[in-house]
């Protein structure tokens, strides 16, 4: 989707809409997110924080106020949580000069956070220890929010992870075929259809109230956790999608992005493998913090959740490809198709190893 461009003068004017310490030395693009535009704001005083300035894509996040209220609730809940067993740093929002958690500039919504210095994130997990540390950070995040009443949060993206509706949208895109691309992806469409019933099991359990609604992150790809210089988990970031959900969304997306040996958009499918050591490390880190608050049904379907989230992303990427790449940022004409094929291959790998994955889960709880 087309986005307005912003020069240094614009960005400095936007920053001055917020309350912050110090003075701006430089502003540079930051990160590789699909949706929002992010900039690192360098402070002239190195003893003070730098900042992250973000343009919120309100075409995706239409309820900006609800989203920012959710983020504020969650960060304050974590910051002031009385637990002595589980603690975690959290993002610090900066209020605007109008005492809001966002501001508007030229028709766009903007917000600002502290930038966490001396931290890093990984698009591709290099070691099992990194997988463990990141998973533990996600687990602590979930655990600290387990006593936040889920009804207090706004459902900002209704049916965001509803695979039944995502499949319906895919079928519509196949039927309409506005870009004339359906013919070249018949194998992918066939495979997606062939496992659809299996992939809808968790959604059916959710709709039947067999899985409890939780406060979930809903976008726990591994680069949404910050690690320190020693690869210890520090802070969970990118909280736009925090809202009511089921734990399988978070556990599954963590597995999808930490136990895959390849990047999300790898075009050589021979490189796409499920790393069982990293799966076990992720399960260890996550479940050592969360296992005593999970129900037996939640635990039973954790092994399937990585397949669900890989499949769901494949369906979304394939739909976007068929519709002309309108949603996700792309860098070349086949980018969404590469993403879809990679995620379908990962889905195959996870389904083929369900017995081993379930055995690991049982040992960790």
Protein structure class: alpha+beta
* CATH homologous superfamily title of the largest domain: Aminoglycoside phosphotransferase (APH), C-terminal lobe
Q: Report the sheet-strand fraction.
A: 5-15%
CATH topology of the largest domain: Aminoglycoside 3'-phosphotransferase, Chain: A, domain 2
- Shape, per Cα inertia axes: globular
Low-pLDDT regions:
none
H and E string: HEEEHEEHHHHHEEEEHHHHHH
Q: State the major sheet.
A: 5 strands, antiparallel
Molecular structure report:
The protein is α+β, with helices and mostly antiparallel strands. It has 2 domains: 8-114, 2-Layer Sandwich (Phosphorylase Kinase, domain 1), CATH 3.30.200; 128-363, Alpha-Beta Complex (Aminoglycoside 3'-phosphotransferase, Chain: A, domain 2). It contains 13 helices and 9 strands. It is globular and about 55 Å long. The mean pLDDT is 95.
Question: What is the element layout, followed by pairings?
Answer:
Elements: H1 8-15, E1 24-29, E2 37-43, E3 50-56, H2 64-79, E4 103-105, E5 108-115, H3 128-144, H4 163-176, H5 186-194, H6 196-199, H7 201-207, E6 214-216, E7 225-227, E8 233-236, E9 243-245, H8 247-258, H9 276-290, H10 296-300, H11 302-322, H12 335-352, H13 354-364
Antiparallel strand pairs: 1-2, 2-3, 3-5, 4-5, 6-9, 7-8
Write a brief structural summary.
The protein is an alpha+beta fold. It folds into two domains: 8-114, 2-Layer Sandwich (Phosphorylase Kinase, domain 1), CATH 3.30.200.20; 128-363, Aminoglycoside 3'-phosphotransferase, Chain: A, domain 2 (Alpha-Beta Complex).
